[in-house]
Amino acid sequence: MKSGQLPFREARWGYLLAAPALLVIALVALYPLGCTLWLSFQQKIIKLPWLHTGWVGLANYRELFTDTRFWQALAHTVMFTVVSVGLELVLGLLAALAIHRARILTGLTRAAVLLPWAIPTVVAAVMWLFLVNPAFGLIPMGLRFLGLPETCQVLLAHPASAWAVIIATDVWKNTPFMTLMLLAGLQVIPVDLYEAAALDGASRWQACRRITLPLLVPAILVALIFRTAQAFMVFGHIYALTGGGPGTATETLAFLNYQAILNDMRFGYGSALSVVIFLGSLAFALFYLSAMGLQVKGEERS
Amino acid sequence: MAGIVISGLHKTYPNGAAALQDFHLAVADGEFLVLVGPSGCGKSTVLRCVAGLERPTLGTISVGGRVVNDLPPQERDLAMVFQTYALYPHMTVFDNLAFGLKMRRRPQEEIGKAVAAVAEKLGLKAHLHKKPRELSGGERQRVALGRAIVRQPQAFLMDEPLSNLDAALRVKMRTELLKLQRELKTTVLYVTHDQTEALTMGDRVAVLHSGRLQQVAPPREIYDHPANRLVAGFIGSPAMNFITARITGKGDGLVLHLGGQTLPLPGDYLERRPGLKNYQQKNLIAGLRPEHFLPLTGARRGMLGRLKIRVEVLETLGPVNYAHFSLPDPLAGREAAAWVAALDPTVPAAPGQDLEVAIEPRHIHFFDPETGKAL
Fold it and tell me: Which residue of B13, B115, B251, B323 has the smallest Cβ count within 10 Å?
């Protein structure tokens, strides 16, 4: 209901009741955001205090958009997001379909399925660090067993295999989340639709493609929003596994941001990067929301 | 088109609950057979076994002379109309109707023609591009029917298809459905808990109770000659009145004791109802339908048994008044039996009023008190 349709007194009450929440949002979200925006037009390098500190206009943004390291980090981030979320979607969907069909999700299995997701990112990453440790890790041991050359066994030393480890960590950790979201979506599809489809002559595969997947779209969209936003901000895996290396081969936007501010102490430049990342994820969120909105409207109409 | 033959069907669920026991039923080709029973009696289980959605524990099901026990639902060539309609919510009406044909890989052109023909027949032409949620209950119901018709299956299975409609629409759809079936001459196995639907729609009615088939017969016969007390009590609304009774005397002194009163019976009563012969001087259950209470007027005065009643509640429905009263039931050792009489509105009656009503002995049903079998 639009507030315009409410009598004035009620509308005023509404604003009054919402005010504390709005105030908190302003304090913890809008204020820091404003500060960041303000900083992004300044030169402020704490490591080099003798340099000019103060207003430099768009200089930080100009530098950012001509910096190949930024474009590289953006490409890495997009690649990571697409590949890992894509893998999680496919694996999560398969797992959800299997669990749904077999009806094996008791309390215990649910806990087991959720376990990787409940582990903090850095802890998970350190676990994988052990797994890929060239001296005693399980994976290099396996590679040695397969007779691969020594150099291949130092997985984090090569850009491609380093990415593989990062993505594997993310997929391992977040597929359970995807599975549960999609399972919830599967469970609200009425059974009699499948029965009607069976009598209509649809094979299991046809029923899956024509009934299950279309009706699962809302659940898939919600799961994708959560996962994409998270993946786009990936930092923990990079920090704990590769530190952005080898070289800058696994640097993502969030990691580059961390480097600029906390390593190089370039608060102005780092803030400019923060603003760009913020705008990027805002665009993402708006895109998904409008896709969802279409979905919701479609549901209402139909 | 084909008949359905179900023989020796048993269904026991893994938890040990027996849903069906030794169920036999033959639906003739082109017949509209209604399977009726209270909820939980196993009637939907029968339908789901025929459809292939559930596996019978024992017994065979054949459609058109072909045993289908081991065929999946996809290959049985049956269509089912669900209580919830089970329309595909993300598809348009056209796609809902076309789904079965598409799955069977019919040519596009044929699908278009078939769907158009069915939409025309069911008055859905204007709705073909709409999604199910945009339709009213009655329209959705018609889409569900259309989806079954368009494929021209061997037989239709209908699981309470009208029970989600409001009362007026249900009555309308009842006749529409019947007209449609007469026109298509398709075999229909129709499941309902509504005895009115059963009586008005079925060529024959099968009454199921607690997983056991009680009687299969045309509606008139089910109503006039229920095979046992369960059928008698289930078919008819308001339900048949029951009370424990006893026949004593001989010849012209033959009388029926019920409710602490006696009704004279004609001398040849036992000759005409040979089933009663062995029950003289014994308790039996007498049943009387509410409409068989007659006003005590004119010519009837002399010839009939009379029952004195005291009206407790009077329901005025317009064409008929329902007088609720209780009869003491001393033979059964219980306080009283609650009875209903459907009285002509011209009979003056009011709550608390004492009334005498007439009963024709031929209208009384008798049942064995142990087995419930009609005598």
Answer: B251
